[in-house]
Amino acid sequence: MTDVWRFYERFANEWDRDRSNPRQGLMERRYLDDLASRLSPGARILDLGCGTGEPLARYLTAGGFNVTGVDAAPAMIAICRQRFPESTWIEADMRTLALGRRFDAIIAWDSFFHLDHDEQRAMFPIFQRHIAPEGLLLFTSGPGAGEAIGKLYGEDLVHASQDPDEYRYLLAGSGFGVLRHVVEDPNCGGHTVWLAQAL
Asked: What is the CATH number of domain 5-198?
C-alpha cells in the first residue's frame, strides 16, 4: 500500500484516459464548488496525489486558482506539466512533504486513503505545516475504520480508513475544525468526504 504510486506509474496513461473522459462528468463538482466559494480569487491550492490533473486541476485552474500539484509518480507529473504548464507540478511523496510554504486550501482527493493507518495519522502534521490561517482541507476517506481491496486494471488496490471519530480527533489536534462530513455520497460515486478549516 505504501508504494501505491508505483501502480499509478504503470497505469498513468490508462488512468488519464479514464479520468479525462467527458462522459464521466465531474462528480466532485459539489465539493469543489463548496471549496471554491470559500476562497478568494487566485487562492493557492495544494493538490496532493494530483494524478494527471484531470479533472480537479482543470476545474481549479479554470476557476482562476493557483494550483500546485504533488504526485510521487513521475509519469503522472509529466502529463500535468505538459497539459497545464501555467501551474506548478512537483514529483514528491506526500508522506515526506516539506515545501516550506503555506496554501489557502489542500486537497487530497482519492489519494490520502491509499496510505496505511499510521501513515494517515502522520499526514495531519504535514497538513498543518502547509495550511495558511483559516485555510481549507478537503479529503476523502472510507466510511469507517478498516481496509478494503478493490480492483483496478486487473490489479488489487488497497484503501484504508480510520474511524470518523479518530479523523475528528486528528483534525482537532492539528488545528482544524470540521465544516462538512458526508458519508458515502450516492451523488459522488459513494465517496466519503471531509471538508475542514484551520482554526
From this structure: 3.40.50.150
